[in-house]
Amino acid sequence: MRAQLTADTATVISDVASKTTYIGGLGGFFAWMLSIDILPWAGLFVAFAGLIVNWYYRRQENKRAQEIHELTLKRLREDQ
Predict the structure, then answer these.
(1) Do residues 43 and 25 touch, judged by C-beta distance below 8 A?
(2) Which domain holds residue 60?
(3) pLDDT for the residue numbered 1
(4) Of 56, 25, 53, nearest to 39 (Cα)?
(5) Count of domains in the chain?
(6) Is the pTM of this model over 0.90?
(7) Distance between CA atoms of 44 and 32, rounded to whole angstroms?
(8) Rounded distance, CA 54 to CA 18, Å?
(9) Are 24 and 43 in contact (CB under 8 A)?
(10) 58: exposed, middle or buried (Cβ count in 10 Å: 0-12, 13-18, 19+)
(11) Residues 47, 1: Cα–Cα separation, whole Å
(12) What is the pLDDT of residue 2?
């Protein structure tokens, strides 16, 4: 139960980080197009931060999926 909740939380955080990355990137691009000096840097920072958070939680999600896969294989081998 707790592992599933943790996996669901990681998935939600990863999805939010992806959306934050897109919004930050688009905001930075439009600020650059409008020649507003500080906003492109803020958009770039938000996009980069979202990318890092997304990478971290996707990595955690993949690690958990691998652990579940290995446990499933172990159980299947023991049942034979």
Answers:
(1) yes
(2) 2-79
(3) 52
(4) 25
(5) 1
(6) no
(7) 10
(8) 6
(9) yes
(10) middle
(11) 33
(12) 57
